[in-house]
Design a protein that fits this description.
Strand content: 35-45%
Oligomer: single chain
Distance between the termini: 54 Å
Number of strands: 15
Helix content: 10-25%
Shape: elongated
Radius of gyration: 19 Å
Order of helices and strands: HEEEHEEEEEEEEEHEEEH
């Protein structure tokens, strides 16, 4: 592949070095690297895949080190429906089967806005479900609903089936634009899940 950079030439080792350098370049105390500000040249696709259950694979082998997965997740970016790992100097494409993250834990808390749901992802990020980090519900290929939580930029976390049932248990009905909807309240926002009549009929 032409014009390949450090990441693609050196594989996983090169990616690890590049990710650490990018993270170290982030302003102290500012959290995640500012990948949204980086627009480096595309250096090809890497044989890396994020499976539906959140497992990261490199050349068909699971990456078994959680700290390494966490590191790579900090330089993840999505553009025009495709996912990339990005540093200030290069960008490589990776495959994502569904969503790049999985929401694996949920806490029910309260703040000045009322009930607040907080989710932990498989890379140990905690995300408050609010107006900036919304829940959406999609109909699956086999029927049923799959919830997704907005994590950052154009990156989402699929909510596990177990947590989906927890959401159903705490759901409530509200009138939205003249239609009764069943949904979830968090941080003063209401996230419609489905038509309330259909939900009652299914129970």
């Amino acid at each position: 592949m032409a014009n390949q950079g450090q990441i693609t030439q050196r594989g996983l080792e090169g990616l690890t070095v590049a990710a650490r350098e990018a993270t170290n370049a982030s302003p102290v105390g500012k959290g995640l690297p500012p990948v949204h500000l980086w627009n480096p040249p595309f250096c090809g696709d890497l044989d890396m895949r994020i499976a539906r259950d959140g497992t990261w694979f490199y050349m068909g082998t699971p990456i078994g080190r959680p700290a390494l997965v966490r590191l790579f997740s900090t330089i993840l970016k999505r553009e025009n429906g495709k996912h990339f790992l990005v540093t200030p100097v290069e960008k490589v494409g990776i495959r994502v089967d569904d969503a790049p993250f999985v929401a694996v834990e949920m806490r029910k808390e309260r703040d000045e806005r009322g009930p607040l749901l907080r989710f932990r992802t498989n890379v140990d990020d905690w995300v408050d479900c609010d107006g900036d980090h919304r829940l959406r519900f999609e109909i699956g290929a086999a029927g049923g609903l799959t919830p997704y939580l907005h994590v950052r930029a154009d990156l989402w976390a699929k909510v596990t089936r177990a947590l989906y049932y927890d959401l159903v248990d705490i759901g409530e009905e509200r009138m939205i634009d003249g239609r009764e909807m069943f949904g979830i309240q968090s941080a003063g926002e209401f996230f419609p899940m489905a038509d309330a009549v259909e939900v009652r009929a299914a129970l």
